Amino acid sequence: MQKELDQIKEYTYNILQNDTTGHSMDHIERVVAISQAILETEPTADAFVVLAAAYLHDTIDDKLVEDEAQAVEDLRGFLDSLAIEPATCQEIMYIIQHLSFSKEITAGKETLSLSGQIVQDADRIDALGAVGILRTAYFGGAKGHPIYDPAIKPIDYTSKKDYRRGSTVINHFYEKLFLLPDRMNTTYGKQEALRRKTFMENFLEEFYQEWPDTD
Ligand code: ADP
Ligand code: NI
Question: The domain 2-210: what is its CATH number?
Answer without folding.
Answer: 1.10.3210.50
